[in-house]
């Protein structure tokens, strides 16, 4: 059946079939072909091999199973999507990048299909929940949000992106605190400190039973992550006792630095330990052109205040997270629904 649908904001009437495209395929794409996706379309034989490789990686617990997918119909490509399955059973899906030629109507129509097919593709993998986390300024944000909400994903968290203003004046007085490089500590010491800094926080970890702090730490130390070099981590100490931790993440290619984590043990909060850690981090990486950023949960008032008072300003850009617990029954019924 052909429908005529008016697209808001376009002022044009598009003839669209109810099921556009009639059949959508999702293939895994070899990393080398990324730049050519829209030119060459998928190669199904290679796709099957790549998908099998990904499934083998997942069952052997290999970290960073980023899976790149392309939505196509035959050799006509519509969108590309990146997903990741991690060791804690999270299936992450990022918003698709649509082909430029697609109208807004077609993008809306495709987004739900892509989501459905993508989840279906990995239906045999043990997954705890699917999650999508993206910047509100992402070009496909509104289209994607409509699709995930329709698929019963629920709002989980919002985080603010803050950037450090170089012109900001900071209080040099606090820098006198004793701060040591993370290289002097074992991974176990750092994990213990990280766990101790998580007591009674306003952070999501307190409210979210699905957050696994040990897995968080393993991710920070993962050699594939820019945070892996723990010699640049900072540990605040009182006597021999570690009381605060800052994990920086420096990406020299994009000249960006992130405060990936900052925390202080409960008994030492409110004594400018957090401020001292941030000041020291900024001083250690005072490289021209390098800008520090931080992503902070909006509900974490102490952390927002700490960053603001250390010279970080709100960019008004937000990361939002939507999540859906994995339910095979629900997915089976969704997969069976006609498209
Ligand atoms: C966020 C955190 C690191 C702050 O460290 P801290 O050493 O207590 O902070 P400081 O003493 O240096 O205070 C810095 C500023 O934040 C304010 N602040 C700190 N804790 C606050 C609180 N609970 N409520 C309101 N303001 C607070 C201080 O008043 C100060 O502001 P000012 O400079 O205008 O006076 C600490 O609360 C913490 O470890 N929380 C748990 C872990 C966490 O959530 N980390 C953030 C993850 S990104």
TrEMBL record:
Key words of the record: Transferase
Domain of life from the UniProt record: Bacteria
Listed Pfam families: Acetyltransf_1
PROSITE patterns: GNAT
Listed GO MF terms: acyltransferase activity, transferring groups other than amino-acyl groups
Domain N-acetyltransferase: 197-331
SUPFAM superfamilies, sorted: Acyl-CoA N-acyltransferases (Nat)
Protein name (database record): Acetyltransferase (GNAT) family protein
Organism: Acidiphilium rubrum
